[in-house]
Amino acid sequence: TAIETFERLNYTGFGFVQLKRVPGSGDYHILEINCRYNTTAALQHRCGINMAYINYCDAIGKAVPVDQQQIDGVKWIDFKSDLAALSDYRKAGEWTLWAWLWSLHGKKCFAILDLKDVNPWLFTSLPLFPRIVRKAAMMLKTRWSAERECADAVP
User: Where are the extended beta strands (E) located within 10-138?
Assistant: First the structure.
């Protein structure tokens, strides 16, 4: 866990550990340790925990509030990174498009997308669309060619 990792490193203060579960073994490998606030603070807030305030209280010696209720199961969605990872996982045969789409079900916290201001999301996502369209066109072309060959083979 993150707490065990920080304890082994003798670290105190704010931070988070990004883990990846290894397929098959179920072991977790550390991807990144980050000890600064960034956009993922939105995930903590969405999960009902105000880490910035907790850390502030801890830093000034004020009693840390214990009345916060954690909301479990909230998913962090970063479409640009998630689509790149999906591509890698599909190549490795570890995931399907449908499995990824199903993983989006439930409570979410978006890294960039906010329906009140979609411009940042559009700015980061628009470069992905030509690649996605090319891939879809290639898949359709391959399928169409295979169907055409089958149709031509029938006497």
Answer: 16-21, 28-34, 75-77, 108-110
Give the span between the Cα atoms of 35 and 19, in whole angstroms.
Answer: 15
Model confidence band, residue 59 (pLDDT cutoffs 50, 70, 90): confident
Token pair 């072309």 is found at: 141
**Nearest in space to 44 (alpha carbons), one of 5, 70, 25, 8:** 70
* Residue 90, Cβ density class (10 Å: 0-12 exposed, 13-18 middle, ≥19 buried): middle
- Closest of 123, 128, 38 to residue 76, by C-alpha: 38
- Burial of 16 from C-beta contacts in 10 A (0-12 / 13-18 / 19+): buried
Closest C-alpha among 100, 5, 12 to residue 58: 12
Reported as a single tens digit per residue, the pLDDT across 129-154 is 777 677 777 777 777 776 666 666 66
